[in-house]
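Re: weekly structure request thread

Next one in the queue (537 aa):
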Amino acid sequence: MGSKNCPETPRQKMIGMMYLFLTAMLALNVSSAVLEGFVRVDQSLRKSKDNFKSRNSFIYNEFANQVSINPGKAEVWQNKALQVKVKADTMEKVIQDLKLLMAQRADGEGADPEKINKLDDLNAAPETMLDPINPRAKVLKNKIIDYKTFLISAIGDTTVNKKGAKVARSIEVSLNTNSTKGSTGKLWEDVLFGEMPVAASVALLSNLQNDVRNAESEVISYLYDQIDAADYKFTGLKAFVIPTSTYVLRGGEFSAQIILAAVDNTQEPTITVNGRNISADNKGDFWFKTTANSIGEQEIRGSIIALDGTGTPQKYEFMPLKYEVAEPNATVSATKMNVMYAGIDNPVSISVPGVSSTKVKPTISNGTLTALGGGNYIAKPSSIGTATINIEAEILGKTQKIGNGYIFKVKPTPPPMPFILVYKDVVDASGKTVKLPQKLAGGKISKRDLMESKGLVAELLDSDFDIEYKVTGFQVRTYDTNGNAQFIDASSGTWSEKQLTRMRSLDKDAIFYIAAIKAVGPDHLVKDLPVMEVIVK
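Done, posted below.
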């Protein structure tokens, strides 16, 4: 029996799709549709895991067949394979128990990890896995490392065995638990469980179970190949269909490898899938491929016809395989606020699940959209109103529209607060007295500080954006004891000579007002700022 391992690259694309979803989720209010999407992903992953388990069960049965035929050759390899099975079963149960704990943390006793009610619970995953007193995530990571080390040791000396080295490298990739994941810079455990809705973390644990079973499959297939199956007669044949993924975006491609567990290499079997004959590629492998045009659960059925030892055609039906086709969707979020502000840089992250950021082409209807790399952009709307981000993505060589456009409100920048810019004597670390700027919002100010100040500045308080405002004019209003008013204007943010002269003449405890303050920000709109009361001390 030849080893028929599942292709690695599509499975890794599934993992990449999950991380893109989760990264965008951190900047969004989680909708019920997105949460239901994670449930569907989890269901799909559990189906994939069951496919692996079914295939692995078949290989263990074939080990038993080989032992019954020639125990001297096969038994040593069977024993190694059974040790792998024990480790894999234990590892899957450990992960399943963690999924149950998360579900109980979210829904209480009697919870079902496959039917979680509080899908948007943001505390269940981190509280279960990242508790510093009981750090289950770190324990899980160590168990994965131990499992990976055991599998690679079961392969044997990979320095002289190219095929074994290839399997070992594949396991290193699929069970990677390095401290950082991609470009996020986060710990492995934080990526899976930090600030995640429980629906997402459970789906990631299901993906980890998938990785465990896939690694088991690769190792036992390798061990089986060591028996030298060419010396044995098989008691039966069984057909299998191995999908690259059971979760497909509409317009994408579903693909599955069709294999017969034991074949005569001098003959090519007849394979039929959904009424269509499948021919071998130039490597002798059989693949079924179809464009996923219909949304929802899909199914493929088929059979393999091969000649037995007497030359009689034998037909082997393979179990129906179901896969899920989802509507393509993109995640667009302003990474600092729910809205955009006109005239300034608004950081935005844009991603399409399962599609590289280099294949995503967004445009904006109002202003400019500048790519920074890695799915990060700067949106700069030019006018107030709305801005629509439209997205196209290249999927399997074809450009298709993603979603119906993502609309953002574009608001004017908020009005800032006015301050009098004064300079205070401060002793620095070296003991020297230096003058440092301070912003005063009115109140008691000495005449000396007023005379030495440069005038007014405007600043937006408690903002995530660096927005520069320029004071374009203001008025100093003073009143004498008889209530007579004197209004003196300035045409910039700097005191005028007349204003300085008037303030210089004021007595101690005199009160004057700074009013009609106007400032302009990057949206080019004039903002009227509040009146300031100043008391000369």
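The mean pLDDT is 81. The chain has three domains: 8-235, 331-411, 417-536.
Next request, please.
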